[in-house]
Automatic annotation (TrEMBL):
Taxonomic source organism: Paenibacillus montaniterrae
Sequence intervals crossing the membrane: none
UniProt keyword terms in alphabetical order: DNA-binding, Transcription, Transcription regulation
Keyword Chaperone tagged: no
The keyword Transcription regulation is annotated on this UniProt entry: yes
Protein name according to UniProt: MarR family transcriptional regulator
Domain HTH marR-type: 13-145
GO MF assignments: DNA binding; DNA-binding transcription factor activity
Length: 154
């Protein structure tokens, strides 16, 4: 059997995988370039944005919300603390629980840069019109839910 015929049955799945990877790479490149202008990396910005929009978060839960390993959270929060954008706070109910929260300086920073960042993201995905973006959102959610469930079951 030729190499071409052997992989024909996988062609659509492989093309989708490559398309998703390349689209993600280039949209993230736009976002990363914008974030770096403000002296942060994607992870720092993601954690800061989470704390600003969702309020104080237990350190142990931040990783799953910004798609990073929990081991890196301590390092990221340390960096945000050094910049004056975040702080740690021990829970009053359970002293084993430590929260990260945005500072006034961090909130002012996000309020200043987030609108422009959203504009950068909007421009990066403008290759699809609004209706196509909505369709892509639904399809990618469906794909993500399925892939997560299949991964956990295997």
């Amino acid at each position: 059997m030729s190499e071409t015929k052997r992989y024909e049955q996988y062609e659509d799945a492989l093309d989708l995988y490559i398309g998703l990877s390349r689209a993600s790479q280039w949209v993230l490149a736009h976002a990363d370039r914008d974030i770096r202008k403000h002296g942060l990396n994607r992870t720092e910005f993601g954690v800061l944005e989470l704390l600003y929009h969702k309020g104080p978060q237990p350190l142990q839960q931040i990783g799953s919300k910004v798609l990073m390993s929990s081991g890196n959270i301590t390092y990221v929060v340390d960096k945000l603390e050094k910049k004056g954008y975040a702080r740690r706070r021990v829970s009053t109910e359970d002293r084993r629980l430590i929260y990260a929260e945005v500072t006034e300086t961090g909130a002012a920073f996000i309020e200043q840069v987030f609108p422009q960042h959203a504009t950068v993201i909007e421009a990066a995905v403008a290759g699809l019109d609004r209706q196509e973006q909505k369709q892509a959102i639904e399809l990618l959610k469906k794909l993500g839910i399925y892939a997560e469930r299949a991964f956990k079951e295997s």
